[in-house]
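Handout for the seminar on molecular recognition.
Each group receives one record of this type.
Step one: identify the two inputs.
Step two: read the structure output and locate the region that could contact adenosine monophosphate.
Step three: write two sentences on what you found, then compare them with the reference statements printed after the record.
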Amino acid sequence: MLSVHEALALVREQALPLEPRRLALSDADGLVLAEDVASDVDSPPHDKAMMDGYAVVSGDSDPARDVIEEIAAGSFPRRRVLPGTAARIMTGAPVPEGADAVVPVEQTTEISGGRVRLDAKMVVARQHILSRGASIRAGDQIVRKCAVLRPIEIAILAEGGRSTLLTYPRPRVAVLSTGNELVPVDQRPGLGQLRNSNGPMLLAAAAGCQAETIDLGIARDDPGVLRERIEQGLAADVLILSGGVSAGKFDLVPQVLSGVGVRPIFHKIALRPGKPLWFGVRDGGNKRTLVFGLPGNPVSSFVGFELFIRPTIAAVAGRGFIGRPEISARIRHDYQHVGGRAAFLPARISTTNAETSPELPDLEILAWRGSADMATLARANALIELPVESIRIAAGTTVRAISI
Ligand code: AMP
Ligand code: MG
């Protein structure tokens, strides 16, 4: 059976970034930039006062100065400041010619005759002035290709004059839950039924990856119904199905996917929970859809999403094939891992304060009742990663986990 590592390599190979598109700056938060961007202006655009006060000549020893004008932010000085004079200036306003220092208003006293007194010995050249272009010069690269656009980048791009940008589009991720036993959340399950919890979980997880989500609801285990919904889902960049990929009589998903032209890449991996995971690709024209069939049991679905789909959405969005960060922790108890398959088991990591306790956090593997046990998963904040080999782990050993 395929190892998790091999399966990840196969998915990574197919998870190519989407074709970049031009977008309004206001729609770009969270996306990845697909071009280098330079500023078309200096920042600040002029020598800028950083305090409310008086613009003066720093070498001038005269404590009293004639106030020759008042410069507010948004206005431009008309008069040159000479020794013996000062211009009243507000934060952000352009420093007038001749002046080379700003004295904060708190360090001055107004005196009669439109004059101001200050302590000339305390004035240092360039004080409280940010020089033109000190932050950015026109033509400087301000944000590079592949940068994730946070509010910070949005601000600097706005300052640099970019109202539209070439970005990798937000991936569209469709979620379809399959199974005759499923009812929607707002219904009380009848005999043999249960509520669809994977659908809402996977939609929330995809939305958390900055994807645009498409809820395809619940499909019965019927080839015609499945086919119709899957075809709808193939309009997305990533289609996630839950259920119907195991070996049961009503596990129809793989054959229906093949029937609509989704090329199977793998089915079943040496993973616990999540062994029946199915992956394939549909290429239609210049449109590619990556299709994942997750096992229906909720913990398996969750693990499959974290290991395979989270990095896929990131890669398609131009961020690279990157999932949740791995962390090291110290296991608190002995553990016998049966092996045969790699395992990602619900675990709880104690929160540590890096300042007061620099050692690794403690990890406890939670006793769980199999891949339908969502209550235990809900108490977990990590998945411990265990190898294919059977191993005995002694308390105190450093282990690897992903935080969830
Ligand atoms: P399957 O992978 O289709 O064989 O489903 C295995 C089991 O997972 C089912 O018997 C259900 O108990 C459970 N299951 C399947 N789909 C869902 C779902 N969407 N939400 C919650 N549990 C599900
Ligand atoms: Mg099923």
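Reference statements: The chain has seven helices and 29 strands. The two ends are 27 Å apart (CA to CA).
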